[in-house]
Specification:
single chain, alpha/beta, Aminopeptidase, 35% helix
Length: 365
């Protein structure tokens, strides 16, 4: 795994306003910004008012779909649905776009899945990303980009569809290939609202070797094919995002955890794609649980993420930024090609377990 340069991790932010009450003896957090309040309101619609939304809570999933359609319409778009059948049910991916003025055939795609895991209300995973997706669509509606900007809400990212042909983004990207869509870059928004300044809050950091030990940064993950796109995203965050904390990573296409969202569907079709994430299970202790509720997120942080992603989208949609054309598609490889990545993860996991055992023994002594 390529971990990027030390400069890839910008200085941590100095303020962390949260919607949760302060602990006794602490000062009250500053009032939320208008942006953080809007993002929180959207998260609460999907995670509290709608709740678990997936194959097992199908009516809730349909309600989330209707909510997305209404929000896009209110923002002045004409949303299109890609409908398909799976497991005896009808599902929909939803897309809207802003046509580019100079190279409309070149597309910058921003996507997030709108289903949640089983009985989880899915505040971080993935209502936090839906809030950013909808906010970006509204903020960029009247922009005049050189390249086309497309926003897509994917269904069926979660189990039992993960990495299967009926996964929403797999269905979507296969249609893109059939049409010959020229997707220059895809930004996958995946679990964005967890943030912590507590030392050791970032699990799987391997003592800072793989990731910083504190969960106060955004991970930006590419595969080798997407490295040029990652370099452009890094440049924007370093030069324009005013010290926004991030860590850039390049990982094998089939590395577990690194492949765990809709960007993987684009990777296997040889489209360049990045996953933007708070690292989900490596930071958010409520991941895939019933306790993944709006109260567990940091909306000041989520607002900073939204503004940083907006800078990235605006810059990538500028035709003065050089992006390589997507490569032709190739057949999806067999499971045997995953084995090196799985072995790597196993070794990394063993190191984490061993370090915890040694730390426990030192504390006991």
């Amino acid at each position: 795994m390529h971990l990027g340069n030390p400069s890839d991790l910008a200085a941590p932010r100095t303020a962390s306003p949260t919607p949760t009450p302060p602990s006794a003896g602490n000062e009250s957090p500053p009032p939320p910004s208008a942006l953080s309040a809007r993002l929180e309101a959207t998260v609460r619609v999907f995670a509290s008012e709608i709740g678990p939304r997936n194959l097992h809570h199908y009516e809730n999933l349909r309600q989330a779909e209707s909510c997305l359609l209404a929000r896009f319409l209110d923002a002045g778009y004409q949303p299109e649905r890609q409908r398909y059948g799976a497991r005896g049910r009808l599902f929909s991916n939803i897309e809207v776009e802003i046509t580019g003025r100079e190279r409309p055939e070149e597309i910058i795609l921003v996507g997030a899945h709108y289903d949640s895991h089983k009985d989880s209300p899915g505040a971080d995973d993935n209502a936090s990303s839906l809030a950013v997706l909808l906010e970006l669509a509204e903020r960029l509606r009247d922009s005049r980009p050189g390249r086309t900007i497309r926003f897509v809400a994917f269904t069926n990212e979660e189990s039992p569809f993960t990495h299967r042909p009926s996964m929403g983004s797999r269905v979507y990207v296969r249609a893109c290939r059939r049409r010959g869509d020229k997707i220059m870059g895809m930004l996958c928004l995946e679990s964005l609202g967890a943030f912590s300044k507590e030392p050791g809050s970032q699990r799987g950091s391997l003592r800072g070797v793989v990731l910083p030990p504190t969960g106060d940064f955004l991970a930006v993950v590419a595969n080798p094919l997407s490295r040029p796109l990652l370099e452009q995203a890094e440049r924007v965050l370093r030069e324009e995002a005013d010290g926004f904390p991030f860590r850039a990573l390049t990982a094998p296409t089939h590395l577990p955890l690194a492949w765990s969202s809709d960007h993987w569907s684009f990777w296997v079709e040889h489209y360049p794609a990045l996953m933007l994430t708070d690292t989900a299970p490596l930071r958010h202790r409520h991941y895939h649980r019933k306790t993944d509720t709006p109260e567990t997120l940091d909306y000041g942080w989520l607002a900073e993420v939204c503004e940083a992603v907006e800078l990235m989208v605006r810059r990538l949609a500028d035709t003065s930024v050089t992006l390589p054309a997507p490569k032709p598609s190739a057949p999806l490889r067999r499971m045997s090609t995953y084995l090196p990545a799985i072995a790597f993860l196993g070794v990394a996991g063993a190191v984490v377990v061993l370090s915890r055992i040694l730390r426990g023994r030192r504390q006991a002594a």
